[in-house]
Design brief:
Number of helices: 1
Oligomer: single chain
Length: 45
């Protein structure tokens, strides 16, 4: 039986490789690409 690795997430179970743990760690640290406010321009409404 394959043992799961601890990737530092307490409420997330990583299965497969669509979103690899390394990418999720970057998202959690706010270091993944396209995460700034400038990447999502909004009109002032």
């Amino acid at each position: 039986m394959k043992r799961s690795q601890d990737h530092g997430f307490t409420a997330l179970k990583v299965e497969g490789n669509i979103l690899p743990p390394e990418f999720l760690q970057k998202v959690a640290a706010l270091t993944a690409p396209h995460q700034t406010n400038a990447d999502y321009p909004r009109s002032g409404s």
